[in-house]
Amino acid sequence: FGGGNTVADAMNPFAVDVPERGVSGTSYPHNFNVSWIYDFPFYKNQEGVIGHILGGWQLNGIYQYLSGQVFTPAIFNWGGTEYCQASFQAAFFSSVSNCRPILSNPGAALDTVGFCTDYTLADCGLSEYYSGAPISASDVHWIMNEPQAALFFGSPYLGIGRNTLRGQTRNNTDLTVVKSTKITERFSLRFEAQAFNVFNRQFRGVPDPFIEDGMLVDGGSAMNNYFNGSNRRNMTFGLKLIF
Fold first, then answer.
1. Which of 37, 103, 120, 183 is most deeply buried (CB count within 10 A of its CB)?
2. Beta bridge partners of 96
3. Could you count the other beta carbons within 10 Å of the beta carbon of residue 72?
4. Under a CB-based contact definition with an 8 Å cutoff, are residues 102 and 83 in contact?
5. For the segment 37-91, what is each residue's pLDDT rounded down to a tens digit?
6. How far is CA 139 from the centre of its chain?
7. Would you give the distance in Å from CA 163 to the centre of its chain?
8. Is-contact 131 99, C-beta < 8 A?
């Protein structure tokens, strides 16, 4: 239930002759990488004190831009009694509904969710999922896919398609500064300073896909800054004697 993964079964278990289509979970349409090595042109011979100080510098870098990974919004299946196809889900699914949330207003905040209370009312008597306050369909991004919604919309199979949303882009720069100093004809000293994610850009992958959780942008342990040190700026320094 992270990036590129979802319940294997289609929303409509009776449409066995029609495949459920969606882009691959590893779809990254934009992938740009550039790397460079730049030797500073001055004082290459490192003559004199000034030459030893100002000569032998090098700047290396790698920049990567990668499209966000796709993911599928999902709904918990609390015992199969609350959401669409209740008896079917209770028999075959233990925790996650194969019915996905219904897209209401794409312009509303991603973490806004409505819940139908009465299919005979305007906007199915929509209530805000977290507070229970009355709300209109234009105010929520998602509508919970459950029996009242199915009756109001005329079908339980109107949830959003697979892998239709994308997580955060990967936008990263690594830099290395190198200073090589000639000590003698035989010995040289090499200083290196490396900065990974030099701009300290936060990267959390894809959000929590469950709309009941408010689609928190935590990304799980594999993508979370706290667990994965590669996502925050790291700096290393070293000296190497070459002979």
1. 103
2. 76
3. 24
4. no
5. 999 999 988 888 998 899 999 999 999 999 988 888 888 765 555 566 666 665 6
6. 25
7. 12
8. no
Q: Which single residue is written with the structure tokens 């369909």?
A: 137
* pLDDT tens, residue by residue, 143-164: 998 889 989 999 888 999 888 8
What letter would DSSP give residue 35? E
Q: What are 219's two structure tokens?
A: 């990304």
Strand 102-103 to 113-115 pairing:
unpaired
Give the whole-angstrom CA distance, residue 29 versus residue 40. Answer: 36
Residue-by-residue DSSP string for 57-121? EEEEEEEEEEPPPEE--B-B-STTSSSSSHHHHHHH-SSB-SSPPEE--TTS-TT-EEE-S-TTS
Other beta carbons within 10 Å of 42: 9
Number of H helices, E strands in the chain: 3, 11
Q: What is the number of other CB atoms lying within 10 angstroms of the CB of residue 231?
A: 22
Q: How far is CA 76 from CA 6, 71, 81, 145, 171, in A?
A: 12, 16, 11, 11, 32
**Contacts for 185 with CB less than 8 Å, ≥ 6 apart:** none
Q: Which regions of the chain does DSSP assign to beta strands (E)? A: 31-39, 57-66, 70-71, 102-103, 113-115, 127-128, 142-143, 165-166, 170-182, 188-196, 234-242
Of 70, 67, 75, 69, nearest to 163 by C-alpha is: 70
Q: Sheet holding 170-182: strands in order across?
A: 31-39, 57-66, 170-182, 188-196, 234-242
